[in-house]
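Because discrete structure vocabularies remain unfamiliar, it helps to consider an illustrative case, giving the amino acid sequence and backbone structure tokens:
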Amino acid sequence: MYKFKNKNLFIEINDNNLLFAVGEHDDELNFKIIEKESFTPSGFKNGKLTNLDVNVDNIKKIINKIEHRTNIFFSDVNVIINQTDFDCINVSGFKKLNGNQVLSDDISYILNDVKSKLEETEKDKTIIHLFNTKYLLDNKSIKNLPIGLYGNFYSHQLTFLMMNDNELKNIKMLFNRCNLSVNKIILKSFTDGIKIINRSKKDTFIKINLNKSETQLTIFYDSAFCFFQKFNFGSNIILKDISKVCSLEEQTVRKVVSDSNFKISDKNMYVDKKYFGEKNFRKISLKNIIEISSARIEEIVNIIFNKNKNLNIMNNNDIPLYFNFEDKSIIKNFKEIFEDNLNNCNLYFDEPKDEDSFSSIKIFGELLGRGWSREAIPVINKRKSLISRLFSSFFE
């Protein structure tokens, strides 16, 4: 188990800023933030370090300020990263029982077998998160580890979230240069999923983040982070299509579709003269813009969701789909088109209001104290004792 100190240091790495916080747990493992600071810019892009020296200087300055205010010297740090270049690998292990009980030794056998095979094929990656995704006893899904139950055949599915060693090395190097060792790393996509569970009280769902330049698809099943897929396109592709076909600058297109007067129903109107500035006015119908954007949105939705074969296992229409947009102008004026194309699903546009910017760190602090029901253990260092450390989480 994690041995709690009086105070813990947390840093959340985002593309637009770095968030620093000091938190503490009481005797009942309740967590609260007692000191916080933010810094802009972050020195990261798409979750990757862009300038080591600049970041080292900036982090040292903020840490010194926090240490001065709290009168505490920190030697390690817990880190949240918004990295999207990671692998999500689902592996199942099996054990024939022949009518006998499921024993802890049976699960140990499965875990050792799965781990050894994964290490053979993923030698340049490190486990960040490991989730118990499904327990099947005689093809029946079991909510918890079925130790002590009788059956003929047991299947145990695990989900490994793994990062490239070089990316992890860069993160560790950054904090080592700041005289900090990395205690634990978690992915922000994990804390974002927990936020949905806390808000909605639903533990099985699909989430789509449509950002400007990329899109992420995440699945949680019974509170287990079990699937992740990244697409190298985002909402900007819609604007680029309009720009190309209508011979308008992207900046002009963004202003047009962001205008509060832009309505999908106004198909017989034209782009206002004010958007052309000193350039010659041309008659460009809103109908043309809507048709271009509709065609691209249909294609985006089909690739990500409607025709995504990876979602065949989630064929229950009652499973909620949370759709989030980085570019709020897109959701404002194209929401209806997305709704029309995202058919046959329980759709929610995920727009939490007044969210605390330190909410992910608060969740991280709670995870340090209480753990997560479906997570075995996050790992940031490859060690031969991995399985023995997993067992403490499984069987305690």
Summary: Confidence is low (pLDDT under 50) at residues 378-396. Residues 286-306 form the longest helix (21 residues). The chain is about 35% helix and 30% strand.
